[in-house]
TrEMBL record:
Pfam families: Peptidase_M1, Peptidase_M1_N. InterPro entries: Aminopeptidase_N-like_N, Aminopeptidase_N-like_N_sf, Peptidase_M1, Peptidase_M1_aminopeptidases, Peptidase_M1_dom, Peptidase_M4/M1_CTD_sf. It comes from the Bacteria. Residues 27-46 are annotated as: Disordered. This is Aminopeptidase N. It catalyses: Release of an N-terminal amino acid, Xaa-|-Yaa- from a peptide, amide or arylamide. Xaa is preferably Ala, but may be most amino acids including Pro (slow action). When a terminal hydrophobic residue is followed by a prolyl residue, the two may be released as an intact Xaa-Pro dipeptide. The lineage of its organism: Bacteria, Bacillati, Actinomycetota, Actinomycetes, Propionibacteriales. It is an enzyme of class 3 (hydrolase). Keywords: Aminopeptidase, Hydrolase, Metal-binding, Metalloprotease, Protease, Signal, Zinc. Residues 64-231 form the Aminopeptidase N-like N-terminal domain. GO terms for molecular function: aminopeptidase activity. Gene3D superfamilies: Neutral Protease Domain 2, tricorn interacting facor f3 domain. Its EC number is 3.4.11.2.
């Protein structure tokens, strides 16, 4: 994510070529007639992240989501069915999902299940027979309601105008429109099908599969073949100028809202055409692009931030080059390598911000080391900036500017300390080894120590945690 207010590097010039692509998912095996478990548990109402204790749920690994939604602009009503392929990680007599809308039906493997909503965000499901650890089940949830009337954790996420709706938000967005195990630790593949007026387009993650016209309505099916976090799943429904291209096997799909003023529309389209070249440059630094498609969407909705929705970032207005670099870098950092815990958010934002600095360095901007020294000098007298502990900023501070900037400074300091060759090998190994998985600060430090052959606990503690500016020393990467 990046808010409109944050801008770290001046826009610069670019050139380049293309990218690579991807693979098909493997489908899960489903043994039939398992033995009923002797002592099934009640699944916890949260996955165990103290920042938002109700996020996610205990005992579940969602393998796949098949979401079908219809949105009615006249009534503001969203009607949906989410089918989840769930692999239980424990024997469960009861389990939970996260969904804010009222629920009408729940089935588990085709049989009606008992359900209730003990809290607005929680859907509690009791299947007729306990779930068996390791044996996949299909859970189908039917629901409907007006998402614009609902808030959770201080967030009101529903962005809708007279002729466009877009579901874009972090850390939470899923429970406004689908039943989810809503935590970045549990990633899954997705099919997303959206029904709306026939004169509108529906845009989502991955690749378009099919568009079907039925009277005055159109139903559009999108597929994401690679694991995705729940907050990164999105759809946008409205009138768009769409461009579809393909270069070196990587499909690109961009969309610009026709509700924007015409001058903004053409600037937005021009800007989005840089997506392929920037992605190609990022590949030279970070290794192969992790997904089957790329692109972007510029919305007319007053989002106030851009978000790195997997394969298709959403931008509020024509994106500047630095913002494109930021959201596209998130495809590696945040989307492919996702957070184990929200407290590690600098692994997303610090890394995406660092790639802006690294891009600028190669495209006419200052060297990243000059930028680092300048950024440190700018902040040296600031007390709040150094008070944010990047390994545990707190739920209310995950998007604090210090998470972005101090995170990026940490990486440049590390680069200066361990050297160019080892540093980029570190980032490429990180994105390769954890591709489509998750990571933590501890795991990154461990890998940095292995690749550099250096003891780095003091370095990381100084840069990420100490409530004061790092001393301008060689070991802090400043000399
Ligand atoms: Zn970001």
């Amino acid at each position: 994510m990046r808010s409109r207010a944050v801008r770290l590097v001046a826009p610069v010039l670019v050139l380049a070529v293309t990218a690579l692509a991807a693979l098909a998912p493997s489908s899960a095996a489903r043994p039939s007639n398992p033995m009923p478990p002797a002592r099934p548990q009640v699944g916890a109402s949260g996955i165990g992240d103290p920042y938002w204790p109700l996020d996610g749920n205990g005992g579940l690994d969602v393998r796949h989501y098949d979401i079908a939604v219809r949105y009615d602009f006249d009534t503001g009503r969203l009607t949906g069915t989410t089918t989840l392929r769930v692999r239980p990680t424990a024997d469960l007599s009861r389990f939970g999902l996260d969904l804010l809308l009222p629920v009408s039906t729940v089935t588990v493997d085709g049989r009606p299940a008992t359900f209730d909503k003990p809290a607005r965000h929680e859907l509690r499901i009791t299947p007729q027979e306990p779930l068996v650890r390791g044996t996949d089940v299909d859970v189908v949830v039917g629901y409907a309601g007006d998402p614009s009337r609902i808030s959770y954790a201080g967030e009101s996420r529903w962005l809708v105008g007279a002729d466009e709706v877009v579901t874009v938000g972090q850390p939470h967005m899923a429970p406004w429109w689908f039943a989810a195990n809503d935590h970045p630790r549990d990633k899954a593949t997705f099919d997303i099908t959206v029904t709306g007026p026939a004169s509108y387009q529906a845009v989502s993650n991955g690749l378009p599969v099919q568009r079907t016209l039925t009277g005055a309505e159109a139903t559009t099916h999108w597929r994401s073949a690679h694991p995705m976090t729940t907050y990164s799943a999105f759809f946008a429904l409205g009138r768009y100028d769409v461009e579809q291209t393909s270069r070196a096997g990587l499909a690109s799909y961009t969309a610009v809202s026709r509700s924007l003023p015409s001058s903004e529309r053409s600037r937005a389209a021009t800007s989005l055409r840089r997506t392929g070249a920037i992605t190609a440059w990022l590949e030279t630094r970070l290794g192969p692009y992790p997904f089957e498609s790329t692109g972007g969407l510029v919305t007319s909705q007053r989002v106030g931030y851009a978000l790195e929705n997997q394969t298709r970032p959403v931008y509020p207005g024509p994106p500047a080059r630095g913002l494109l670099v930021h959201e596209l870098a998130h495809q590696w950092f945040g989307d492919s390598v996702s957070l184990q815990r929200w407290r590690d958010i600098w692994l997303n934002e610090g890394f995406a911000t660092f790639m802006e600095v690294a891009y600028a360095e190669r495209h006419g901007g200052p060297s990243a080391q000059q930028w680092l020294r300048g950024a440190r000098d700018d902040q040296v007298g600031s007390r709040w900036f150094w008070r944010v502990d990047l390994t545990d900023p707190g739920a209310g501070r995950i998007f604090d500017p210090a998470v972005y900037q101090r995170g990026a400074m940490t990486l440049q300091a590390l680069r200066h300390r361990i050297g160019e060759r080892r540093f980029w090998r570190l980032l490429r190994t990180w994105t390769h080894d954890r591709r489509h998985g998750t990571g933590s600060t501890w795991a990154f430090r461990t890998l940095a120590e292995r690749i550099s052959g250096q003891q780095l606990d003091d370095f990381f503690s100084t840069w990420l945690r100490e409530p004061r500016p790092p001393a301008p020393t060689r070991s802090n990467g400043l000399h």
